[in-house]
Amino acid sequence: xxxxxxxxxxxxxxxxxxxxxxxxxxxxxxxxxxxxxxxxxxxxxxxxxxxxxxxxxxxxxxxxxxxxxxxxxxxxxxxxxxxxxxxxxxxxxxxxxxxxxxxxxxxxxxxxxxxxxxxxxxxxxxxxxxxxxxxxxxxxxxxxxxxxxxxxxxxxxxxxxxxxxxxxxxxxxxxxxxxxxxxxxxxxxxxxxxxxxxxxxxxxxxxxxxxxxxxxxxxxxxxxxxxxxxxxxxxxxxxxxxxxxxxxxxxxxxxxxxxxxxxxxxxxxxxxxxxxxxxxxxxxxxxxxxxxxxxxxxxxxxxxxxxxxxxxxxxxxxxxxxxxxxxxxxxxxxxxxxxxxxxxxxxxxxxxxxxxxxxxxxxxxxxxxxxxxxxxxxxxxxxxxxxxxxxxxxxxxxxxxxxxxxxxxxxxxxxxxxxxxxxxxxxxxxxxxxxxxxxxxxxxxxxxxxxxxxxxxxxxxxxxx
Amino acid sequence: xxxxxxxxxxxxxxxxxxxxxxxxxxxxxxxxxxxxxxxxxxxxxxxxxxxxxxxxxxxxxxxxxxxxxxxxxxxxxxxxxxxxxxxxxxxxxxxxxxxxxxxxxxxxxxxxxxxxxxxxxxxxxxxxxxxxxxxxxxxxxxxxxxxxxxxxxxxxxxxxxxxxxxxxxxxxxxxxxxxxxxxxxxxxxxxxxxxxxxxxxxxxxxxxxxxxxxxxxxxxxxxxxxxxxxxxxxxxxxxxxxxxxxxxxxxxxxxxxxxxxxxxxxxxxxxxxxxxxxxxxxxxxxxxxxxxxxxxxxxxxxxxxxxxxx
Lengths: 465, 310
Description:
The structure holds 2 protein chains of 2 kinds. Chain A is of the alpha/beta class. Helix content of chain A is about 45%, strand content about 10%.
């Protein structure tokens, strides 16, 4: 209800006027005194803002950088460890840490701050198509001339480049896969094998359901987690349709008319209709899902490997009970992981002079072993680091070991968003629509194609008008 | 001649000569229209100019820096997309439901709170209190209360043996749950306006009706309702405008979900803005502006058609 204007205020005004008329002289003096005091106070308080925040001023060339990262428990822990390590090694550079949410809220925040020139001096964000959406050539500092650029993993470099071919970000984090977290003790108890095809996966689910455990966990309370069935299936799509990414970017192939790609949406529908979701799938949050798969309340949780770093926080001691296997497709021969080659560390173009040098030093720190070790302190690694300078610690989680196994066997390929600049922003909601039974898988695929069309047109790509 | 009543002589006020006129028109106030200028400048800069420029940008593909003219494409897209049609339908349901129930409940509560009951002042404060709480706070609190498994509401229902529904996660129920919370948060405002309206009715009418033997219900129907008409018109107009534009509660409780089931035009506009489709988002704002005008302008005319300027 509009609170801004109403006849109620008119009534109040009338009463106030009547009272003032009685004590007109006193009333007017009171108003004048209040107004004068307010103006005086306002004039006084503004003074204190002038001093600080010049950065390169005063005390012996000290620079302060602002650093923006995501807000998950593990990322915040990593950021703090890294800041401590970096400040110890570089005493005249200080870092202040800020966080932003994930999902589309985070995308919105990053885009807005870059557009208004208010972004932090160094920030963490996705690479791949999400990087393209924030217009790196316009907004970010190119880093291809840096000495560490040649030590980076090739898929990372390919996904952190802009259309002009220059590298725009440093590495942040580790390679992670989008696949299925599973509860190892349940598999051992029921004598199940890792499913290499979708049919085997559904058979396993049936066995698990009979045993009274929720076969597949979903956590729609955190909307971005709904996308894994579609996005994590890309390795299988590419195995069947090798040029899908190129045709998709050109607007020729669509999800709805490519059966291999449509399968992702249909899988959500199948699992939902078979009743394999956990009871609270529509409202569960990310940590609820992690806890459920770590403690065995649910058997499978399609997720990004990176979230397993939080298992110790929500279910202490259970990290060893959670394993990782790729989302199965139709063909056991092409069973493999869909991979996200880490995130990027970026510097906005608005950073200049001393601050720019300090920011570049910080990005470089993340390509050194001390930087990687600091990162690993907060986020147990779930895959190899993105630079050949860093090696993994010996005691990594089961999920990391499983990821490493498939990567070393060559059974892995990057997700679609690293091979195509387009990713529709409403995929989360569309997957939830399919998962809650509001639309079928086919309808969901069509809706996503429409969504992608909007994004492609906004990016000005040829062939989409 | 001196008055025969013995009171002091009262000389009638000499008629005030009409203030200097321009072009022969008579001015009603004593200040020239030029006093409107500062407020007019601020209004034009911060309201009129952005409104007109948003009309322009709604016909373009816009990325905040460059804009390419694409004509009506944004509007065509807006009315073709499944999610956007759902938003339009939900907006109308939400607005009529919240507005209607606020009027009815507000009036009933106002009648209750203007009668002689104990702790009347305390009850008035309690009814008005939810209006003062930030809508974001209300949204977050109720989304926790309405959690199907862990929320207080369903747990309380379970103790009396009723299985509570999935308030915010059932696609067909979500928008109605949010509307109920909106009514809880906003009925206090309607009640206060109705109380002001009822209290302004001279008690002579009620006494006369009582003398003539009218029941309380009869005097409510034939005295209170007609004479509180301006208050009713105000509440309907304001709550309908608020309902059509509602965003905070929907965004904090479900984010338009599950999927797009509880989207309204305002949350659709916000989602398009979040995705970076600035031209489409602006087109949505223009559609909302036209929708609200198309509903409110005729409604206001119809509600106030009997008003007479005294």
